[in-house]
Write the structure tokens for this entry.
Amino acid sequence: MPVRDNTNRAWIAFSLGFILALASFLFNPFNLAPDACKAVAVAILMIIWWVTEALPMPAVALVPLVLLPLLGVSSFEEVAKSFSNPVIFLFMGGFMIGLAIEKWNLHKRIALQIVCRTGTSGDRIILGFIIATGFLSMWLSNTATTMMMFPIALSVIAVLKGRGDSGHGFRNFALVLMLVIAYASNIGGMATVIGTPPNVALSHISRRNMI
């Protein structure tokens, strides 16, 4: 029964959006120009569907891409510019790479391989984490890289602590290891455009000014 009620509510909200949008277009209460009136009707339709959750939000967000060219308000190319900005796709690419690396634990493999090659002494472990974190941050968001490397560093600290290393030097090592992950993420993030979101924004602003 609850599933049926939710379905009925969704259909009512779906129909209500069409009715209010059509009423706004036919009666034109704001005395707008025809194209502006059509745009307002589309906006009302989207607002109703968003507020009532008649459709998933990503689907509602694509409504202008279909209705505005169909109603003759704007061309498809003009509307699509808001959906196909290069910055948006650059962000999407970075997020997809991050999800893929996290899914297959590639960050752990890279970190462990680098740490194994640099050595197991305190200084060399820290050097290994600097190199691994900086390299990963070149291709991922610096914040995401920090969150990925943080549990690996905690596991290393736990292993060393289990061996009986708990003196003053060990506490300094644990503190430095946490700090170098944050610093290496920021340093690596400056190496590429997708390393951190401000790089993308700055690149877009610089390109626009050049044009």
Residues 56 and 133 are 37 Å apart (CA to CA). The mean pLDDT is 83. The two ends are 59 Å apart (CA to CA). DSSP finds eleven helices and no strands in the chain.
